[in-house]
C-alpha cells in the first residue's frame, strides 16, 4: 500500500462500500470468547447499537454478521472493517491532517494496536486481557477520520472508544478528551463490564491502552526494575544468585523477566499462554523457555550455584512452580504475581488441573464452574506462598488484585487484625515511600520521527539533565537519582523498544520539566523531531487505587478518587494535548479511578509554556495529597516544591502526639 493509499484510507472513515469479509486469522493471539451474559432482548439492542454506524442499505448483511460475532466471540468487533494496511507507529509526517497534535495522537493509537505491542490486536486490546483502545474497528476508523480533519481549535470527545464528535474549543484546550468505563458507581461490578461492553456502550481502557499511551512492556520495566532492586535492598540481599519467582508474560507483566535481568537476579516467570510466551522469547524479554518442572528445578539450582543472571519462562501454571519448589526446597528470595486478576473470570487468571485450551472453553461454556476452579486455584496458590514465606521468602502483592481476589476466594491471606492483608502491596513497602511520596514516577516520551537516532539523542539529553540535577539534589533523593541515571545509561543496551521509539524514565516534577524543556529546545534547533510526552497512570498523582497506587495512604482517604479527577481536570486546562480518565485500570472495575495525559512538544513557545505549567501540577497534585495524609517523604517533597515555586501554597498537616491519643482510649 502506498502512502497516498494509506492516507486516503484514513480520511475515508467508514467505507461507503462494504469491504470483503475477512478470515479469522489463527496465527495471532486472540481474546478469549466472552461469556454469554445478554438476554435475547439485549442481544437485539447490541445489534441496533452496532448497526447505527451504517446506512440502512448495509443492515441486511451486517446484522447477520454481527449477530454471528456476538454469538461466537461474545462481542461485536466488526472484523470486516479491520484495515488492510500494516498497523504500526509511522513517522508523524506520514499522517494526513491539519493539526500536528492530531497526527501525534494518530501515531500513538496505531502504536497501541501494533502486532508487536498489542496483546489481542484484532480485538483492539492492548494489554491486561481486556484493556481496549476501541470496542470495534469502526470506532477506530471514525476516530482516525476525525483526527485527520481536526484543526487546532477543535476537541474530539471520546466516550469509551466511541468518537462522539469534533467540538469547537480553542488552541490551548486538549485536542482529545477520553473517558473509559465511567459508570454510575452501583454499576461497576465485573458482570456490569461484561454486560455493558457486550452492548457496545462502554469499555475497559486499562491504564494506558484506552488513553493511547502504552509503549509495550518497557512501560513498566523501569518500575519493575526499581521494585525488584529495592526488594532485594529491603531483605538486605544481593540480587546475584538470588531467585525472583512470579507469573504473567502478557502486556505489562511481560516486563518482569527483563526487569529481573536488569536488576541482576534469577527470574522464573510462569505463563499458561504458549503464543505470548513465544512472543516474549522472540523479543528477547526472556532467555529460556522450560515446560518440565524437574528440568526447571535443575536449571534454577545451576543458576543459583553459578550466580547467573538469567530469566526463565515456565510454560504452565504458576501454582505448580510454587508447589514444586516447596517440595524440592528451592529457596525463593522474592515472590510476587502479575497475572490479570482484575479480570479473573475472563482470561486474567487460569486454574490448575486443566489445559489452557480447556480453560478457555470452560470460561465461555460454563463460567460458574470456571469461577469455582479459579477460586480453588487461588486458595492453593496462597497456601503454597505461605509455606515459602515461612521459610524466609519475601512476598509482595503487585497491585494486580491477587490478594484481594484470593481473600474473596477464602484463602489465608489476611493479617491477624482481619482487616489488612498478610503481605504488603509493593507500593506500601517500596514504590510509595521511596518514589511516589517524593514525586518520582514513570515519565514517558515517544520520538515521532520513528528514528532510533532521535531516541538515542533524547536518552543523552535526559541523562545529562539528571547528572547535573544530582549534584544539587538533597540526600533524601540521591538514591532515586542514581537509580534513574543508571537506568537511562543502560536503556539502549537492554533493547527495550517494542513498537514506537519510546522511553520511560522515573523522574520527579523538576526532572520531568527540565528534561522536557531540553527536548523542546533540541526540537527548536532541528536536532530531533517532535516528541510526545506522557506517563503511565501508575504514578504519583494520576491514580486513586486503594490496593495499589494509594495503598500507602493511611488517613482513611485511600478509597476516595478526588486526586485522580483533579489531576485530569488540572492537566486539561494547563496545556495537555489529550487527557483521559478511566474506571478500572490495573485492578478491576470499581476498584480504581485513573487519569492520564499526552503532550506534543514541537519546539514552539506554546509547548514550552504548557509543559512548565502542566508537568508541575501533574506531579505536585499527588505530592500535596500524600503530604496531607501525613506521609513523611511527601511532607519533605512538597515543602521543597514550595521553596522552588513561590506561587505554590499547600496546607501542611500538623502531627499529633500518639501518646496523647493512647490516653484517650
TrEMBL record:
List required co-factors.
NAD(+)
Keywords, ordered alphabetically: Cytoplasm, Histidine metabolism, Lyase, NAD
Query: What EC class is this?
Result: lyase
Q: Which residues form the Urocanase N-terminal domain?
A: 87-213
Q: Biological process (GO) annotations?
A: L-histidine catabolic process to glutamate and formamide; L-histidine catabolic process to glutamate and formate
Q: Name one Pfam family in it.
A: Urocanase
Give the InterPro entries listed for this entry: Urocanase (IPR055351), Urocanase-like (IPR023637), Urocanase_C (IPR035401), Urocanase_central_sf (IPR038364), Urocanase_CS (IPR023636), Urocanase_N (IPR035400), Urocanase_Rossmann-like (IPR035085), Urocanase_sf (IPR036190)
Start and end residues of each Urocanase C-terminal domain: 436-639
Q: In which pathway does it act?
A: Amino-acid degradation; L-histidine degradation into L-glutamate; N-formimidoyl-L-glutamate from L-histidine: step 2/3
Q: Which family does it belong to?
A: Belongs to the urocanase family.
Q: What is this protein called?
A: Urocanate hydratase
Amino acid at each position: 500500500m502506498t502512502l497516498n493509499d494509506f492516507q486516503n484510507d484514513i480520511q475515508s472513515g467508514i467505507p461507503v462500500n462494504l469491504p470483503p469479509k475477512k478470515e479469522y486469522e489463527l496465527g495471532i493471539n486472540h481474546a478469549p470468547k466472552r461469556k454469554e451474559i445478554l438476554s435475547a432482548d439485549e442481544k437485539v439492542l447490541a445489534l441496533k447499537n452496532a448497526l447505527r454506524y451504517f446506512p440502512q442499505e448495509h443492515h441486511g448483511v451486517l446484522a447477520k454478521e454481527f449477530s454471528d460475532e456476538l454469538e461466537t466471540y461474545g462481542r461485536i468487533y466488526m472484523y470486516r472493517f479491520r484495515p488492510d494496511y500494516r498497523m504500526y507507529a509511522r513517522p508523524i509526517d506520514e499522517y494526513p491532517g491539519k493539526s500536528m497534535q492530531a497526527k501525534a495522537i494518530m501515531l500513538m493509537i496505531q502504536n497501541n494496536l501494533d502486532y508487536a505491542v498489542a496483546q489481542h490486536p484484532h480485538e483492539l486490546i492492548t494489554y491486561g486481557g481486556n484493556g481496549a483502545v476501541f470496542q470495534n474497528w469502526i470506532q477506530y476508523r471514525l476516530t482516525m477520520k476525525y483526527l485527520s480533519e481536526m484543526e487546532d481549535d477543535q476537541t474530539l470527545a471520546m466516550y469509551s472508544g466511541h468518537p462522539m464528535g469534533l467540538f469547537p474549543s480553542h488552541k490551548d484546550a486538549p485536542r482529545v478528551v477520553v473517558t473509559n468505563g465511567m459508570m454510575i458507581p452501583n454499576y461497576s461490578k465485573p458482570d456490569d463490564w461484561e454486560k455493558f461492553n457486550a452492548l457496545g456502550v462502554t469499555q475497559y481502557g486499562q491504564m494506558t491502552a484506552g488513553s493511547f499511551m502504552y509503549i509495550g512492556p518497557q512501560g513498566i520495566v523501569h518500575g519493575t526494575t526499581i521494585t525488584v532492586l529495592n526488594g532485594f535492598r529491603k531483605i538486605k540481599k544481593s540480587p546475584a544468585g538470588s531467585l525472583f519467582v512470579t507469573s504473567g508474560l502478557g502486556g505489562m507483566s511481560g516486563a518482569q523477566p527483563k526487569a529481573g535481568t536488569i536488576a541482576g537476579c534469577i527470574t522464573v516467570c510462569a505463563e499458561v499462554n504458549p503464543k505470548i510466551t513465544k512472543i516474549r522469547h522472540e523479543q528477547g524479554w526472556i532467555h529460556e523457555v522450560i515446560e518440565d518442572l524437574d528440568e526447571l528445578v535443575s536449571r534454577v539450582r545451576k543458576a543459583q550455584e553459578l550466580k547467573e543472571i538469567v530469566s526463565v519462562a515456565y510454560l504452565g501454571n504458576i501454582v505448580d512452580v510454587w508447589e514444586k519448589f516447596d517440595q524440592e526446597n528451592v529457596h525463593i528470595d522474592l515472590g510476587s504475581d502479575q497475572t490479570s486478576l482484575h479480570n479473573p473470570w475472563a482470561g486474567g487468571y487460569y486454574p490448575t488441573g486443566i489445559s489452557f485450551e480447556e480453560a478457555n472453553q470452560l470460561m465461555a461454556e460454563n463460567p460458574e464452574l470456571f469461577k469455582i476452579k479459579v477460586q480453588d486455584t487461588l486458595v492453593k496458590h496462597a497456601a503454597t506462598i505461605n509455606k515459602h514465606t515461612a521459610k524466609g521468602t519475601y512476598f509482595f502483592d503487585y497491585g494486580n488484585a491477587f490478594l484481594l481476589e484470593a481473600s474473596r476466594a477464602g484463602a489465608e491471606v489476611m493479617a491477624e487484625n482481619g482487616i489488612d492483608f498478610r503481605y504488603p502491596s509493593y507500593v506500601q513497602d517500596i514504590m510509595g515511600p521511596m518514589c511516589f511520596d517524593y514525586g518520582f514516577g514513570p515519565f514517558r516520551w515517544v520520538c515521532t520521527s520513528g528514528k532510533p537516532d532521535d531516541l538515542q539523542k533524547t536518552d543523552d539529553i535526559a541523562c545529562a539533565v539528571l547528572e547535573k540535577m544530582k549534584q544539587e539534589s538533597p540526600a533524601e533523593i540521591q538514591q532515586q537519582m542514581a537509580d534513574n541515571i543508571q537506568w537511562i545509561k543502560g536503556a539502549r543496551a537492554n533493547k527495550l523498544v517494542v513498537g514506537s521509539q519510546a522511553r520511560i524514565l522515573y523522574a520527579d516534577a523538576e526532572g520531568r520539566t527540565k528534561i522536557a524543556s531540553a527536548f523542546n529546545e533540541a526540537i527548536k534547533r532541528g536536532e530531533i523531531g517532535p516528541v510526545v510526552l506522557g506517563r503511565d497512570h501508575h504514578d504519583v498523582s494520576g491514580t486513586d487505587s486503594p490496593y495499589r497506587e494509594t495503598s500507602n495512604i493511611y488517613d482513611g482517604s485511600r478509597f476516595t478518587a478526588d486526586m485522580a479527577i483533579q489531576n485530569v481536570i488540572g492537566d486539561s486546562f494547563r496545556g495537555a494535548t489529550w487527557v483521559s480518565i478511566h474506571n478500572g485500570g490495573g485492578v478491576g472495575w470499581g476498584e480504581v479511578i485513573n487519569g492520564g495525559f499526552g503532550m506534543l512538544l514541537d519546539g514552539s513557545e506554546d509547548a514550552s509554556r504548557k509543559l512548565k505549567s502542566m508537568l508541575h501540577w501533574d506531579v505536585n497534585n499527588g505530592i500535596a495529597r500524600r503530604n496531607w495524609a501525613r506521609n513523611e517523604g511527601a511532607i519533605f517533597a512538597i515543602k521543597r516544591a514550595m521553596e522552588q515555586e513561590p506561587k505554590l501554597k499547600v496546607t501542611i498537616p500538623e502531627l499529633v502526639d500518639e501518646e496523647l491519643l493512647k490516653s484517650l482510649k
